């Protein structure tokens, strides 16, 4: 949290002046009971109408000056808080851009989004409130006490007793109820899940005649929720009566002491009224302050979560130097006994893999779900670093490549066909920012995607809605392939990217890739033997290990796993549609 | 709000009161306590004023009177506190118990709604009816009790008290207080636009954040980080400006109303003090007035918020009542039979069915299935295969004709006994958030551990269950993502394996499962089907070819039926399908 506050440094002036002006306002508010006192003692006492009117105008003036002070303070608070949150959002976004894939995996995208949005918003509210209330409320409470001392020391001692007592009650009850309310919320989540289960599983529940048991389970959770709600309700119901009693007993004590002091002539009637007014101011401010503390606690929790993200990323600095590549090594990949274990995983996902690809080769990678196919190819652009062994690309160990330079050579088509909000052209330019329309159309042609653009009224300028919802799965996939091709990559990685394509398109795509003038080295990950059987080399993965390597014919002869996959798909392809 | 809406709200309100009726004693009690609390709270400033009047000046203090008054204050404060405390607790009890009852009624109704309800209402909507709507209803009701009622009482009470002391000054307060409401409304109106701009900008930024961070890996794969940052910065600056304006202007409300209140206070002070010189009011009474003037505007500000809150609560209550009022499925016939150990003859007797009258689906369909036969249902997506399952399980009733099992019309059987006779494994692998053991036991809650393990072994599930962190006691949850789709399917099969009912319904689609796991599932299916009448939504050629009866469906109709050879010979839709799809 502390490190985040550094971002407030640019708003030092606002952070200092804001609370100061708030304090000024509070001071003016604290003068009001004294003005009333004078109105009563001098004005009414001496029947001085002019004094009464002057005092009234003074009150109005105090209010007006107080108002302008607050307005200034509120402006400073708003400026500092929103400026701070904008800076923080930027810093966090920048940090996320530099994260490694492992960081992204461990932190999880959904929690990163929460940090970026609602957590930072909470923090903004917290900063805003802090500037506005941190000094004001305590200042009024203690200010009232100090003013009481200026009126009468003995009477002020009643304040000295009442304030801690009130604080104990207000803060005590809040501290006790906060965790209880949190548990109520958790129980409500349980109830939500129970309801969801009943809705999504309705067919199974009825098929197994479990309706009664499910309703019973729901009633139990519901009962628990209500008993928790009642319990916390009983406790927080104490707050108002208790504070009411304390304040009014203090008033009783004040008046009694006042009566004694007035009798001996130490105090006036107006002074007693002033003391009474100071006492009434305290409670409201204490409750405000307690609520403020709760908001700040929440904001600090959010701040700490954000801070944790800043601390958990491991961005690696990259230099931008291009390594010297010998022309004869261009387009080659060598894996030498490469293994990789995901963070916090017990077993390696890829184990002891070795193979070589020559320039223009097609490498097929096949295996069951979870066999390590995608992991294997994600090592090539250094999305992850191998935990053992070395990968050599263009004859140079991949770790000696700056990531950016390495990734510039590789066209990646991810498993999930992701497009971004924007036009088709903007999406394709992700491949290479300076590509001409002709180059884009060439890439679309190779990716068998020309018809998509042709069918759109705006052609390349057609807008793609969020997540590409206005395109079919197959269309999205072909566009992502085109995006990778715009780059004219040295290496093309198709990570199970043809799964949404029908057989004919899949075949046409593979043919078009073969015919490219500057043929990239292609790595095709697939579950279908049909997609990879023409590859120069096929890697068969089973549980992260290489179960076989060779051509289709060789593997059919030699590799048990490959034969099984092929056999199971022969019948799988022979399927009805439904 | 238009009249109709108000009418609906009145109806809902009446119904809420109806639900509260059996609690009338506690309700009346809280109302009485509220009146008592408000009256005593308003009395205290008067007492304080009287006490101050007893302290005229040096040598003129009436100690007897002051002590008496202070004692009265003490007692009244004690009574108020007690009344307030009891009131809150009773209110909590009333509200939470009503809410508990409503939720229980809702779940009760949910278990008896026809499947049509679940198929036509999104899950999220029903959940929010049962959870957040009920919650908001409870909050609104509580606030309505505590703030609306006491707020109105306080305003009326204060007015009466002030009028009794000094009508002239009361008029000053009465005329000036609406000013603060006016100021608050004025600011709220102005800030509304700024809040909207802020919300829109924030939504745009959130959309961008969502898109970018969800696909952060793609952003990095294409080296797009810097361009992403540029785009982000532009929206971020916009949001900063919008946010600053909205935050600042909305933070004006409190200081401005505070300012108006201060003016009211000053006005009361000056008129009161001048009246005191004339002798029409005492100093103590003036101090009473001043404290009233301080408190008077508070309930006004609260009430305006409460009214919206209450309307919202009634709207929420309306949603929940709508759920509770949904028509339940027709109950079992009073003389319905308990189907025991069915042989497995299934006859569709000229049945017709449609989900909605406008779109006829199945019409005049007849099928004959003998005990132990395997029936494969084939056809393109959306052709009505699931509908057949729905009808056999009696999730829906036929519109015309009859389905008979062992000669009994399904509608003459109890639903429960019918469903006991049929084991169902669907493509969508639903499991409870409970342990593996509890899930397998679902159809037979009193099964022994040995039976559970035997069923799991038969379903090829035992070996992976053993490897789970807590074996059979592992709690299944989506969060850990512990189970693969294939493993979930095996558990669903084990669940049916345990009961071994005489008839089966299987949806064998396993598209997301790799082919080797699929083979395991197939062999489990094979074992399950031995000697049982089975309906299989078939996807693979082997199942179809081995079936005793193939139903070819298209657009809700069974257009062809027969076995593989006879259908091929027929040269119709099936033969075509076989040609085009299977001849790769």
Q: How helix-rich are the residues of chain A, as a percent range? A: 55-70%
Low-confidence stretches of chain A: 572-578
CATH class of the largest domain in chain B: Alpha Beta
Mean pLDDT of chain A: 88
Number of domains of chain A: 2
Q: Measured on Cα atoms, how large is the radius of gyration of chain A?
A: 36 Å
Q: What is the number of helical segments of chain A per DSSP (H or I, 4+ residues)? A: 21
CATH homology superfamily name of the largest domain in chain A: ABC transporter type 1, transmembrane domain
Number of strands of chain A: 12
CATH architecture descriptor text of the largest domain in chain B:
3-Layer(aba) Sandwich
Number of domains of chain B: 2
Instruction: Sketch the topology of chain B as an H/E string, one letter per element.
Output: HHHHHHHHHHEEEHEEHEHHHHEHEHEEHH
Which two protein chains have the largest interface (Cβ within 8 Å of the partner's Cβ), and how many residues from each? A-B, 146 and 144 residues
User: Beta-strand level of the residues of chain B, as a percent range?
Assistant: 5-15%
**Assembly of the depicted chains:** heterodimer
